[in-house]
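Ticket closed. Logging final result for Low specificity L-threonine aldolase.
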Amino acid sequence: MAEENVTDPAQRRFETLRGCTRQLSGTRPSTLRESLDDLAGGSHDLDTRTDVYGNGIVEALEQRVAELLGTEAAAFFPTGTMAQQVALRCWAERTGDPTVAMHPLAHPEVHERFAYSQLSGLRSVWPSTERRIATADEVAECAEPFGTLMLELPLRDAGFLLPSWEELEAVVGAARARDAVVHFDGARLWETVPHFGRPLPEIAALADSVYVSFYKTLGGISGAALAGPATFTDQARTWRHRYGGQLYQQWPAALSALRGIERELPRLGAYVEHAKAVAGAIAGAVAAVPGARVFPEPPHTHQFQLWLPFPAELLNETATLFAEQTGEAVLPLMWHEPGLPGISFTELTVAGPGLEWSAEEVGKAVGAFLRRLRAAG
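Final structure:
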């Protein structure tokens, strides 16, 4: 019996979203040709040199990031995982303390295969295990000493959560009182400005160093940066080389990062504001479903979670069929099960495409999706 030709799920999602006239969450997947055309659409002079081992356009990007964050310098990295490990390693060398205080849901704990311990011999302590950023009291009362406090802003796996500005100042103050340095895992720091009501330099100034991503929020190809004092970034560049991050040329990633800064950064305030309206509409549409929840409501950034009491496999298939048949992707096509029986969640990102939807349209479309889901289940 011949094997059934099964479409790769990732390819099916790509083709489905490419065929939709509208999608609420995220951005429409691009072809390679579209991506190259987009790189040429910015204001950067394409007749200037590219880069060789980090000069040229990479240097221009580093200077731009330092200006945006108000730091003395910035260093480009090919990946955020490498940038995070280098930052924590540098601070451990400087403080003489290999212990890092972080949240159990922080990116190095969940998504980096414990590289901080496997590669650098560092260890972590958890001031809090609650699904939120630790409070100042929890940092102050942590039972073990630590040299670095790492704060993920926003805390993605807990629902893209942020503290208030006053709470953040207090947490940083508590770490300083323990003679610890503060590092911001700010992969999505760009989108925190509306919530904090402070400009990026004022937010970054609370920390001794900051990591930012160029593909999260800004939609770049890849890459990240560490920003802080020049002595810190110089040390970080040394470890970047040792970790294999001194690539011969990285101009496509650098150019796409500059393009994202130019295009997406000015729009983030509108994205965050519309995300609140969208989240409210979705919450209203799922209110009659026991166990359904939008979290947090309202969102702290332009990203939030939606929890529904159905298996992920059913949600993935129904969401994909709904998009294929209607030409509109109102909810993401990827759902996840966190280990709770019968409960799944997805993450929504309200960016440029999401602005095309009114809150009323979102509510109606989610209601139609739920009717199909009940019929399929």
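The first strand starts at residue 22 and ends at 23. No further action required.
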